[in-house]
Design goal:
The complex is a heterodimer of chains A (about 290) and B (about 450). Chain A has about 290 residues and is mainly alpha-helical. Chain A contains 15 helices and two strands. Chain B has about 450 residues and is of the alpha/beta class. The chains are: A mainly alpha (about 290), B alpha/beta (about 450).
Chain lengths: ~290, ~450
């Protein structure tokens, strides 16, 4: 007994046990159950083989949802990685006055609830000529726009909500990464006559790469599984012509609203595969799987 | 040695933390529940030994007070079958989703639940329906209740829901504005008159007459029912692109092009963005179900004393029906509940008895589903009633005029109804009235999309 307690071999397993248990119970279990359900029709209580998956292939709305989610993910990556990194560098430089104030301001939106933020954005982007955004473009002489009824403007509102909310969080990640870079490197570069831009290119970007990969990975996942923002912006799952329909939104519609749990699970499995494939490719390209010699 | 001791301590504390974590989290969730019980739930206090407790889920807060008032009357009348209602009010989507999951998993369902019309078919679409057949409970009241309102909650001849109101579609005219525009609303009998009045009003005042709906289909469904059309064929197969649907949309589109209709922010009169536009007088007319009365008294208060309730226009005397019931909430009883039979009996009393229907008008301002109270002038013309005070016509005169002509679209009972409605309000109407898309093409697209959804 004593041996077991003091065993160097057993200790690591004991330490990782809580995590393993959680994953098994709340991840592997449900995924497995979901895979089984995706071959069933829960309304009729029967096994239907691959027919749920066949239906997905020909389901126009599902593909609209995929397109929306992918488009959304792409633009969030495009906006939410370079800009927060830049802001983090600025916040970290001595030129910046009152950096802590700005840090708090940037981070504040992340503390608000999406439900509240979505509702406020919905009213800001209202159709009426008194809605904030319509007043704003009215200053430039433009006519009121039905923001949330058009594909492009609706997408803009969604993206703005996302950037407003997540910029601060990503800045925090990058700040942490940047601050862990040894100051000597910059000093040495300074002595060698490197410009600030060269220092940023040659020192900061390569050395915050682990942070970048982390942010990239969670952003891909977050982008592809986005739901609540769209749900709140359009006050429910019904955006005109599905301009706000996302993959998870479609899963919610099928599983919860229409009670077709089997079909919803099939949608979920497809989402899982999609996220896995994209992230595996991304991690492979970034060399995360290579042995840690470098 | 020190290291070992440390690791032992750490392991022990971790294990303890793990166990404590389990314990405390379980304890917490229980705490949270009982807090909920104090906060979100309301329980009746009933004296006596043989009292049955019934759990009720609602998504409309007003219903709670109404149910308890009526349940107290039931207890007075039936001392041998006393009940104690425990009511939980939840947000609309939340409640339906929770109910759906509870019924699916067979755990945690209430005895009684309010289910909204748009959600109802998804609960009766299953092979083994988990709601109770209410035929026996409804029987005592059946003759006085508007049949079409029972039909909408009926599947294969068995009713599963108790209606709250009729939702008779009526016309709300802003008489002040119409007078300025030189329009006499009492002369509007047909949709042709309606269109002409709309054009004249728009030209004279520059303001809008009524709205072309893009996020709801109250007027579309009304016209479709009048024309004798529907979204499904006789055999229940999809038919949203048929000639009658197209004709109705053409009629509305023509009115829009002529200036008699315009789109309103929010897309329909019952919408938070739209209320101010009616309240400010930018739109003069609403074609809405009768329950819009309660939206007037809550959200369009400036219109007090300016609104007349009148029968809706017709196409002609050969119309299939004059008006239809719109919207609604069906109270259902969960079949697996140990007290299902009693719950059904109580709720039929609570919702369908004449006493209950008086309350429906007094408290909620809805048109009661038990029409025997419609002629009770003490009730319907009570000068203390806020709804009687608000409108400048007698609301029930209009209802009684149309009483024999209240139909419904048959497709509303079909399991495909929620999907059809979805396609109409998210694609068809907005594409046609907001974006000017081709009507037949839009309907053909909708048809093929729905066919694909129900292909399996």
């Amino acid at each position: 007994m004593k041996k077991l307690f003091y065993s160097q071999k057993a200790a690591p397993y004991v330490f990782v046990l809580p995590f393993v248990l959680t994953v098994l119970l709340f991840w592997i279990g449900p995924v497995f159950k979901g895979i089984l359900l995706s071959f069933q029709d829960t309304m009729k209580n029967q096994w239907v083989g691959l027919s749920n998956y066949q239906r997905i292939m020909g389901d126009r709305i599902f593909w609209i949802a995929v397109k929306n989610s992918v488009k959304y993910t792409f633009f969030t990556l495009l906006l939410l990685i370079p800009f927060p990194m830049l802001f983090a560098v600025l916040l970290n430089s001595h030129l910046m006055k009152r950096p802590n104030l700005f840090k708090s301001i940037y981070f504040l939106p992340a503390l608000t609830s999406v439900v509240v933020a979505g509702t406020v954005f919905r009213l800001m982007f209202g159709e009426s000529d008194q809605a904030l955004m319509n007043q704003l473009i009215g200053l430039f002489g433009a006519a009121p726009i039905k923001w949330l009824k058009r594909g492009d403007t609706g997408f803009f509102a969604l993206l703005l909500l996302c950037c407003w909310r997540w910029t601060g969080v990503n800045i925090m990640y990058f700040l942490a990464g940047i601050q862990s870079i040894p100051q000597e490197l910059y000093e040495a570069a300074d002595i060698d006559g490197a410009s600030k831009w060269q220092q940023f290119r040659q020192i900061t970007i390569p050395l915050v790469k682990p942070t970048t990969i982390y942010v990239l990975t969670i952003s891909i996942y977050a982008g592809l599984s986005m739901f609540l923002e769209s749900f709140m912006l359009w006050k429910g799952n019904n955006s005109p012509n599905y301009i706000g329909m996302t993959i998870v939104g479609y899963l919610y519609r099928q599983g919860i609203e229409k009670r077709a749990m089997g079909y919803a699970c099939a949608v979920g499995i497809v989402l899982l595969i999609l996220v896995m494939v994209v992230n595996l490719i991304q991690l492979k390209v970034n060399g995360t799987f290579d042995s840690e010699e470098a | 040695m020190k290291k070992r001791l440390l690791s032992l301590l750490l392991t022990a504390s971790l294990a303890a933390g793990l166990l404590a974590g389990c314990g405390s989290s379980a304890g917490k969730s229980k705490d949270a529940d009982s807090v909920d019980e104090a906060g979100g739930k309301t329980a009746m206090s009933v004296e006596g030994d043989d009292v049955t407790t019934l759990n009720v889920w609602t998504f409309i807060e007003l219903h709670q007070k109404f149910y308890t008032t009526m349940a107290e009357k039931w207890n007075e009348a039936h001392p041998d079958k006393k009940v104690k209602l425990v009511l939980s009010n939840m947000q609309y989507d939340d409640m339906h989703n929770k109910l759906s999951l509870a019924l699916e998993s067979g755990k945690g369902a209430p005895d009684i639940a309010d289910i909204e019309l748009g959600k109802f078919p998804s609960f009766t679409a299953e092979k083994d329906i988990k709601l109770l057949d209410l035929t026996d409970a409804i029987a005592p009241y059946k003759d006085d209740v508007v049949q079409s309102r029972l039909d909408i909650y009926t599947k294969d001849g068995k009713p599963y829901g108790l209606p709250t109101h009729v939702g008779t579609t009526v016309a709300f005219y802003n008489t002040d504005l119409l007078q300025e525009g030189g329009i006499d609303y009492t002369a509007i009998k047909t949709w042709d008159d309606f269109k002409k009045a709309g054009i004249a009003y728009h030209e004279k005042t520059g303001k809008e007459f009524a709205c072309a709906e893009t996020t709801a289909s109250w007027m579309v469904n009304l016209m479709l029912a009048q024309k004798g059309g529907d979204y499904l064929k006789e055999d229940g197969s999809l038919d949203v692109n048929n000639a009658k649907v197209a004709e109705v949309l053409h009629i509305i589109k023509d009115m829009q092009d002529a200036g008699a209709l315009a789109t309103v922010p929010g897309g329909q009169p019952d919408n938070e963005e739209a209320y101010p536009h009616y309240n400010d007088g930018e739109f003069a007319v609403q074609i809405m179900p009768f329950w819009q009365t309660s939206r007037f008294t809550s959200y369009m208060k400036d219109l007090k004393g300016k609104i007349a309730i009148a029968p809706v226009p017709k196409f002609g005397d050969s119309d299939a029906t004059w008006t239809i019931g719109g919207g609604g909430t069906g109270t259902a009883v969960v079949a697996s509940s140990p007290n299902a039979e009693l719950a059904a009996e109580v709720m039929a009393f609570v919702k369908l008895s004449p006493d209950a229907n008086k309350e429906v008008w007094n408290v909620l301002g809805f048109d009661p589903v038990n029409t025997s109270v419609w002629t009770d002038k003490d009730l319907t013309e009570n000068p203390d009633n806020q709804f009687v005070q608000f409108f400048n016509t007698k609301p029930f005169d209009t209802l009684l005029t149309m009483q024999d002509g209240i139909g419904s679209l048959k497709s509303l009972q079909d399991e495909k109804a929620p999907s059809i409605n979805n396609v109409m309000v998210t694609e068809v109407l907005t594409n046609i009235f907001d974006n000017g898309a081709d009507i037949q093409q839009t309907l053909d697209d909708a048809q093929s999309e729905l066919e694909n959804e129900f292909a399996s």
